[in-house]
Design brief:
The chain has ten helices and no strands.
Amino acid sequence: MQTAFEKAIELILSNDAELLNILGVTARMSLSSSLIALLLGVPLGLLLGAVKFRGRGLLIVINRTLMGMPPVVCGLIFYLFFSGVGPFRSAQLLFTVEIMVLAQVVLITPIVAGNMETYASAVAPAVRETARGLGLNGGKTFALLLNECVYQVFSAYLLAFARAIAEVGAVAMVGGAIAWKTNVMTTAIMEYTNKGSFSKGIALGIILLALSFAVNIALSLLQRRLSK
């Protein structure tokens, strides 16, 4: 085990081509999916948290249900839709980074929306009162609410990125974990472990833990800022 750990450190320091490819695919998938989920989830979360309309309660329940969707179920749905017998087979997206991003967006967007909905529901009454006193219209009221939630937006994005970079079930099913094409850190760790190539698995595990640690530090700093 000590030898495998030492080799893992050497691989990280040597800029191994295969590891760099895996890191590149992981970054492309995680950054793309988390940004898209942020753009979709923030407006939806603010809408659910601040605006009262018919069916709002049902939408909140549906969103909270989707927050707990098992990744393998999401992966299965996308696999069936985009496989050779699915309705979207002509798109030929199966086993590509693009479909991995789509699956991640479906998994992450409800998390972003739920995070924003909880926070917006707490600050919305004060924002509405301020907007009413200033005579602001709907668009400016939304902008004011978004400004009040700016740190929460950053927090939601970090949560989305952390979920994207650590997910394995859906991306393995729709991406296929193809070497030099769709293999990401989580699927590669499983693959290397099954092959007995522990040094590469440990190297990727160290990098993944370091990234998770950095994200959690950033979240802690934001939470401290929000609590002030």
